[in-house]
Specification:
Layout (H helix, E strand, L loop, with lengths): L7 H17 L2 E2 L8 E5 L7 E5 L6 H21 L7 E5 L14 E5 L28 H27 L6 H19 L6 H6 L5 H5 L5 H4 L7 H22 L1 H22 L9 H17 L1 H25 L5 H18 L7 H24 L1
Parallel strand pairs: 3-4, 4-5
Antiparallel strand pairs: 1-2, 2-3
């Protein structure tokens, strides 16, 4: 194999980048105007941002300026990814020994003092197994080839997941549920002779706490397919079509179906708890569950959907909840119940390539506790 001589700092950068990308799922950040620096991020990592700097830091003033630059990038990433907290690990490969490193506003600085000898003891406290994964026995061309191949494999895997998640898919159940709601509305409208009173809605399956407690539990679902008027139907079906197609495309049609009905059930149970003797109808509880699902999905893809999460999903949820509290006749209990249910059940079913097994187990347990707790309040309190 041909021999290629590399600068020791460049070799260290390659080893560190390889480790953080292939072992800890970090991805590169493009930061304009930098040289001999690598920026990485992972919103689920021990440090959301890792910066590796090979430039020589020769005095305290330059070090303080360097920290200010890191904090500026942190603010930009925090805003883009809608993160509540942000921290950074600043790895310095060439620092004047007279400089006393200090932490500043969630930035931990570590200087690797023996870069030529590939010593990373300073990082072991944060990453205990780093020495085992650093490709320390490889140099020159062999190092370049292995690092490039491994990173390409990791990137290819991530790209396949991304393409599978975001590629357009045939929408089935969203359209079917919209059709069912319209058909049910027309049938009930005809049978009730255009009189969609609370009595008639109750007659055809409206959600009503006293009857649910008496054993007519099917009302928790049938009430989700009834609507109190044409405007009510059109608003809900328009929302369902817009939001449902997105959720069904992102998570798949069967997971979408589970999210929809679980959210509808949760919304109906919450409505029974807080709405007393009012007949509850409408798909809005399930629709809010789809918004909760989008909230969970957007959070885990916030690197790509941060602006959508910040400018569309969160404002829509807040505005609709605010309108629910401001207007009479709106079952906000069902909305909140569905929203929480949609978020939790999406955690339980998981987002491919994003949700960990631990998160899924927590989601399953939390979803069961949530629905059992609501049912207990309805039926036994």
């Amino acid at each position: 194999m041909a021999s290629i001589s590399m600068n020791k700092k460049d070799e260290m950068i390659m080893r560190l980048v390889h480790y953080f990308i292939t072992e800890l799922n970090y991805v590169p950040i493009v930061v304009n105007g930098v040289k001999d620096e690598v920026w990485l991020q992972n919103q689920d990592g021990p440090y959301k941002i890792i910066r590796i700097n090979a430039n020589y830091i020769h005095n305290d003033e330059q070090y303080d300026f360097d920290l200010a630059k890191i904090r500026n990038v942190m603010r930009q990433v925090k805003k883009k990814t809608v993160s509540l907290t942000m921290n950074a690990l600043n790895i310095l490969l060439d620092v004047n020994e007279a400089i006393k490193l200090h932490d500043s506003k969630n930035v931990l600085s570590i200087a690797l003092k023996n870069v030529p000898n590939m010593n990373v003891d300073e990082l072991k406290e944060v990453f205990p197994h780093i020495n085992e994964k650093l490709l320390l026995d490889e140099n020159g061309l062999e190092l370049i080839i292995n690092v490039t191949n491994n990173i390409n494999k990791k990137t290819d895997y991530e790209n396949r997941i991304y393409e599978k998640t975001f590629k357009p898919k045939k929408i089935v159940f969203t359209n079917l549920i919209v059709i069912i709601n319209i058909v049910v509305f027309l049938v009930v409208y005809a049978l009730s002779k255009a009189n969609l009173s609370a009595f008639n809605l109750l007659k055809y399956g409206g959600n009503f706490a006293p009857l649910v407690k008496a054993g007519e539990v099917w009302r928790l679902i049938t009430g989700c397919f009834l609507h109190a008027g044409l405007i009510h139907l059109l608003l809900n079906m328009y929302s369902l079509y817009l939001i449902g197609t997105q959720v069904e495309m992102y998570v798949g049609k069967y997971k979408f179906l589970l999210i929809y009905f679980f959210s509808g059930l949760a919304g109906s149970l919450m409505s029974c708890i807080f709405s007393g003797n009012v007949v509850g109808v409408g798909a809005s509880g399930a629709i809010f569950g789809l918004l909760g699902s989008l909230l969970y999905f957007g959070y885990h893809y916030r690197l790509y959907l941060g602006s959508v999460l910040r400018n569309q999903i969160i404002p829509i949820i807040i505005c609709n909840l605010a309108l629910g509290f401001a207007l009479s006749g709106v079952d906000n209990a069902a909305h909140i119940g569905g929203l929480i249910g949609g978020y939790l059940i999406t955690m339980a079913i998981g987002i491919t390539g994003k949700t960990t097994k631990k998160d899924q187990v927590n989601g399953i347990i939390t979803s069961l506790i949530y629905i059992v707790f609501l049912a207990y309040i309805v039926f036994f309190r």
